Amino acid sequence: MKSWEVRKAFHAFSLSEEGPKNVHICGEAYSDYQGFIEGALSSADDVLHTFGIDSARKLKTSDR
């Protein structure tokens, strides 16, 4: 299985059959950059995007 297929499957899911998709997994193990901090940051950014939050890379220092 390719990393992007795993990321798509883990994008958001539920722990029950009928529950809301409110479980999100992120980390370098689920990224295109496995074993690197960039992978962890990239997958965390994907989860933030799911919640409608702008990328941390786009925030100004004064916004943090």
What attributes characterize this protein structure?
33% helix; 2 helices; single chain; flat
What does this entry look like structurally?
This protein has one domain. Helices cover 33% and strands 0% of the residues. It contains two helices and no strands. The longest helix is centred in the last third of the chain and has 14 residues, at 37-50.
Largest sheet: none
Structural class: mainly alpha
Broad shape: flat
Q: How far from one another are the termini?
A: 37 Å
Percent of residues in β-strands? under 5%
Summarize the structure.
By secondary structure, the protein is mostly helical.
Give a topology summary.
Blueprint: H1 3-9, H2 37-50
